[in-house]
Amino acid sequence: MKTALVTGASSGIGRATALAFDKMGIQLILCGRRIEKLQELQSKLNVKSTILTFDVSNKEEVINAIDSIPEDFEKIDILVNNAGNAHGFGSLADGETEDWDAMLGSNVNGLLYVSKAVIPSMIQNGGGHVINISSVAGKQTYANGTVYCATKKAVEAISEGIRLDHTKDGIKVTNIAPGAVETEFSEVRFKGDKERAKKVYEGFEPLTATDIADAIAYAVSVPDHVTIADMTIYAKAQAAPTTVYRST
């Protein structure tokens, strides 16, 4: 039985991915900061699972958490680097440095810390599969999203770099770049402003977390000699990061 470690599993794409892997018979290491959410998810699973609570942006927490993985889960076959966030929406001049630090900490440093903690054991075990969740914001920068877009461009570069460094070690790397997905994303970005977050998805049918989880499930289910290197996923009504055709 394969084992997958999923960061940001408490909600959104991470939670949906865990549920998709459960259907595939992949045992799970559920990672996040909200233990009650992880426990609620765990109660719905049929496969064996274990929970790790840590902040990906804290290097010591990452190391301690990975070191504490139970023996039955130590051989990690799949790593899904999903944890990340967006904070604030405005020009560089108007931006809050605390928001920048939060995005760089989770979207870039967190991905690096977790990957560094997991990949060496994958190499020792003869290979594995790393799946990084970037964004269409990593493909095209948009106004008022300078730092967020920069962090997602970094994810794209890290995906390429891991592939270049570790294909020889039997490690596949898949970069998934979602467009507009209706999750907690916008509510976090707008700091709890539910009305403003709701307007992001008005007038069209956005992607769901399950749509992205389905793509991840496909990437891990292809034959061993096949690598899905990069996948960009838009809603039907979306043509570019900031170009959405709305009915109203």
TrEMBL record:
Domain of life: Bacteria
Keywords (A to Z) from UniProt: Oxidoreductase
GO molecular function, one term: oxidoreductase activity, acting on the CH-OH group of donors, NAD or NADP as acceptor
Pfam families cross-referenced by the UniProt entry: adh_short
Keyword set includes Cytoplasm: no
Gene3D superfamilies the UniProt entry points to: NAD(P)-binding Rossmann-like Domain (3.40.50.720)
Family stated for the protein in its record: Belongs to the short-chain dehydrogenases/reductases (SDR) family.
Protein name: Malonic semialdehyde reductase
Organism listed in the record: Jiulongibacter sediminis
